[in-house]
Amino acid sequence: MIASPSSRARWSWSFAAFAALAGCGAQSAADAGPEPGDAGLDVAPDAPRDNGFVCAAVCDGGCPTGSHACGGACSSDTDVATCGATCSPCAAAANANATCDGTACGLACVAGFGDCDHDAANGCEVPTTSDAANCGACGNACAAGVTCHEGACGCGGAVGAVDQAQPLATSGQYVNASVGGVGQSFTAGKTGLLTGIEMKLDVCTTMPGFSLHMVVSDAAGNALGTGDVPLVAPPLTCTGYTGLPSGPPGAGYFDLGSSCITVTAGTAYRFDVTLAGPPTKCNGGKCSAGQAVGVCISDNDCQPQPGYTFSTANPYPGGHDTRGGTAWDLAFRTYVR
Fold first, then answer.
1. Short-list 78, 48, 72, CA closest to 60
2. How many Å apart are CA 259 and CA 269, to the nearest integer?
3. So what's the pLDDT on residue 96?
4. Residues forming a β-bridge with 275
5. In the chain, at which end, N or C, are there fewer CB atoms within 10 A of the end residue's CB?
6. Which of 117, 307, 322 is nearest to 217 (CA)?
7. How would you classify residue 325: left for phi > 0, otherwise alpha for psi between -120 and 50, otherwise beta?
8. Percent share of the chain, pLDDT over 70
């Protein structure tokens, strides 16, 4: 029997529909037939002709630019659930979000962290807001002894306002190896950045290479930061055991900005000061070359003799001189910003 032209048309369309259907493996129902202008099966249903079935765009001639076929559907090239030619999901990692560049998975660190070891397995492992070896960015190291604070090395800037103060002095003493360190406890009056601590220093002998070294600690003795005053003249002078003058910080100001010490109102802290410098030697009654000149009996005689002042009346209620718990108070001011 010879098929009529209309029968041949229906047969040709049915074969084409089947072929198209076979190429779209996710389909479970056939297109009811093309409408004028249709190219086989459709992205959107020609309800009621398609019986509610939606065919993938790949069946109508491929995915648009910026996407690729995955499981009979078109996915964005940057979709982390269907990344690359294998349509693989991308896994997130510590402190990072998963990414897809169209071919492979990657990581995007969340703010404040960096992938400094370039190992995707442990994600973005470094807190760049506080890591002194990677401050603000991987590999950006702060200078020795400088703290990383909020992604920047140190906490430089303006000197804070006076918070705690004991400017009075009735006596004084030298700081050297035989005396040991001196210190003072204090209670912060406000919360903020401790930019520095000022002491009344009386320095009659200066020497390059020597300094007074301050360590600030919490009440449990945990060191929080340090500062130094080099023993050079000027600005240090020999003025006698007097109290702290009024006005801006003077030559006895220990700058603590590089340590980024945050103090909390009502909390106790302490600072300790020691003499720091090269070894000193007294040989045959004379100091070694380059050290203090003159007659010496011991190595201590070859050191500079910086002095500090204090009041024996214990006028500061928030702490005391920490030399063995003596109820004295150093002449000092704290500055908080």
1. 72
2. 15
3. 95
4. 212
5. N
6. 322
7. left
8. 77
Q: Where are the alpha helices (DSSP H) in the chain?
A: 5-22
Q: Give me the residue label for tokens 């896994």.
A: 91
Tokens in use for 172? Answer: 């004084």
Tens digits of per-residue pLDDT, 100-158? 998 999 999 999 999 999 998 999 999 999 999 999 999 999 988 788 888 989 887 88
User: Rounded to an integer, what distance in angstroms lies between the CA atom of residue 20 and that of residue 24?
Assistant: 7
CB 93 within 8 A of CB 108: no
- Mean pLDDT per 10-residue interval, the chain, length 337 residues: 44 36 40 48 44 44 85 91 92 94 93 94 94 95 86 87 95 71 94 96 81 94 94 80 90 92 97 87 78 72 83 90 76 96
For residue 262, which phi and psi values (nearest 5 degrees)?
-100, 125
What type of residue sits at position 266? G
Residues 302, 22: Cα–Cα separation, whole Å: 98
Give the closest residue to 294 by CA, choosing from 286, 306, 304, 283: 286
CA 258 to each of CA 74, 153, 190, 336: distance values in angstroms, whole numbers, following the listed order: 55, 7, 20, 14
DSSP 8-state assignment for residue 59:
G
Backbone φ, ψ for residue 311 (5° rounding): -115, 130
CA distance 337 to 319: 21
Residue 224: predicted pLDDT: 95
Q: Assign 83 to helix, strand or coil.
A: strand
DSSP states of 249-260 as a string? --TTEEE-GGG-
120-133: b (≥16 Cβ within 10 Å) or e: eeebbbbebbebbe
Q: Give the DSSP letter string of 160-221.
A: -EEEEEE---SEEEE-STTT--EEEEEE-SS-EEEEEEEE-EEES---TT-EEEEEEEETT-
131 half-sphere exposure, CB direction, 13 A CA radius:
17
235, 198 Cβ separation under 8 angstroms: no
